[in-house]
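Hi R.,

Here's the chain you asked about this morning:
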Amino acid sequence: ALGYWLSLHPAAAVVTRGLDIPDYFVDACAKYEVPLLKTSRETSPFLASLIAQLNRELAPRITRHGVLVEVYGEGVLIVGESGAGKSETAIELIKRGHRLIADDAVEIRKLGDNTLEGSSPSNIRHFIELRGIGIINAGRIFGMGAVKPNEKIDMVIQLEEWDATKAYDRLGIDNEYTKLLDVKVPVITVPITPGRNLAVIVETAAMNNRQKKMGYNGAKELMQGLGIDDLEPTEKELDLWTHNE
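And here is the predicted structure, written out as tokens:
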């Protein structure tokens, strides 16, 4: 049975629990050119760790241009055109106590049916490009507590230049979604105008996204408090409510 199994040329044979390896096992592995490994770990924990590592290394992956930060425990992927202010927003978030995972290039892995994890390529990890200043190492400048090797992706924030002809969502009753590796991720579009504090907006979006995941929606509560059944009011109605307030 041992000879037949080794003749199938498995990737390796592993002896767990630190057990002594008999000579016939060593000879058989040498005969079939199968690597023979040994570990002191118990069989079940070893297999669990091995499967988890294989799932991570062999997971489908893509690379996206953007910035990934952890904000209040939420993984926020910030995307937008070059010059939109993604890296500057990341710096401000770091100064406010949040953590950088990746700048410029974000490697995204699909670890489960609904789980995405983002990280930075090893050669640019912790580095941020700031136009006019150059390349900085966030871990060196702000301390190692300001960076993190990986983080799940809970939402996407799309930065875009303000378009006066476009109707932006003013209530946020229903989530909009984008797909990354066939996984639905909530996405919001934030228009950029002079004077907007993007870091505060990202913080608020992260907290609001967490509340929605926990079943609370502030916009729906407002509509119900006003006794409004139609959860899709017109722009005119929104303006009237704002003026009345």
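One quick note: The two ends are 80 Å apart (CA to CA).

Cheers,
M.
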